[in-house]
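Model the whole thing, not chain by chain.
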Amino acid sequence: MPLTVVGSIALDSVTTPAGKAENALGGSATYFSMASSLFTKVHIVGVVGRDFPQEHVDMLVKRGIDTNDLQVAKGETFRWTGSYDGDMSVAETHDTQLNVFAEFNPQISEASKANDFQFLANIHPTVQRGVLQQVRHAKLTFMDTMNLWINTEPEEVKALLGEVMGIVLNDMEAKMLTGENNLVVAGKKILEMGPKMAVIKKGEHGATVVMDGQVVNLPAYPLHNLVDPTGAGDSFAGGMMGYLASHGEVNFESLRRGVAHGIVVATFTCEAFSLDRLKVTTLEQVEERLAEYRNMLDF
Amino acid sequence: MPLTVVGSIALDSVTTPAGKAENALGGSATYFSMASSLFTKVHIVGVVGRDFPQEHVDMLVKRGIDTNDLQVAKGETFRWTGSYDGDMSVAETHDTQLNVFAEFNPQISEASKANDFQFLANIHPTVQRGVLQQVRHAKLTFMDTMNLWINTEPEEVKALLGEVMGIVLNDMEAKMLTGENNLVVAGKKILEMGPKMAVIKKGEHGATVVMDGQVVNLPAYPLHNLVDPTGAGDSFAGGMMGYLASHGEVNFESLRRGVAHGIVVATFTCEAFSLDRLKVTTLEQVEERLAEYRNMLDF
């Protein structure tokens, strides 16, 4: 089944211990759509400026992504500048220029609304809620968020949690949202806030999945060559939702399998700057690495 | 096959968000021997003072542990006072009184030397080396260490690494020892220092196993009720070595399975203060939880 993602499209300048990239393609909806399009038809909803290189749109289209809801607005594309040090678990932001993204008010076409799988990538929770009101009928609605909104808009985030079916967030955000240090307990508390599913991303430590009273820890795939973690979380969510949409059924078993797919897809993103590795990744390569991941856990 | 552990036996006073324990049984050799004795015959080598309660010795004996190499020295037993906050990943030490442990010079009986499986729990690396010289013939020699020795005795730790077959250490220690932030790379660098096997403990994030060019991440078993993590690492090592000794063969497959056993055994230790939960844990309970752990990873 096809899915829709609403989120940011950016031009990133990133420095890591492995090197740097300037004005390279980034953004949550970009990583998510490239990851999920490995598994299913994807509609991307977002906004770019008139400076946005056509080659990036061509890349999305080449992957079969529907770009009819990609608005081109007067002004410049969202730009982010950041760096990673040490174990690269946290980015340091040096500069953020929202540009056309500041006024982003997603207008979702009938075709994109009609999809049964809807992902609200990290945007202001009020904007996410506006999107959610347009896609209430969906079979699965999943949201992401970030520390900024948990800090500045906690009531909006909590209201949204009462309306979505699932949330994906990182370990720090899960602790911040619940005030709990134990992620198992935090995951259960998040479900008490509304959603049926919580997926906690833990970077190099994998992910924790909470649904139907079950809690599962899945480890990371061992990555020898971490070049740039930017977009790993969005690629993870894209791999997870893409698998779920291609599978059709949403239950504990398929969610866990989706998370395993997300973990594996994210490793490709981390092996190069921007989408340089993910854009040439094939479903066959994902399945090969997934088989290695399963073997790793077969003891 | 039987195994021998050489390490500390202590009386701990511990405070965690869940409560406190005073002058409770602790020490690396204690946790290790109680964990490993679930799987095989264990000889404990250590020293206590004349104040050491007989009930603790009785508990070891009741578990079938050979205490013939448990010296009783003139003076007081090693005492540690510490606390945990937040996610309880790191202990804060408030007081350490080495007492009789300061002069610990392990004299290993012929019976304990004869065992094919030998574990050098965390002690000064020079003392560990003295032990290793007595057990060179062993089929498997494994060491633990700590940040203190990596900082103050790096040359001794590295010399020892050239002589043992395996090392178990935590993530911070692996990074400190190798200067690497990526644990996959750190694990491989440790093998370049000598041992054939490196097992990196990651607390609530499970463990990483490196052997024969393979790297495996195993997640933690999801623990809802973390009361006191003291001794978790030693229980993990005990579960791992106990399984290996009971299995007999040491190879990548059995090491990985041993690590899975260690992960599961350590969860029992964390569910209560001191050895209160571990001492009443049965092999049947371990196997039941291991089956749940396997199910968790079967997606």
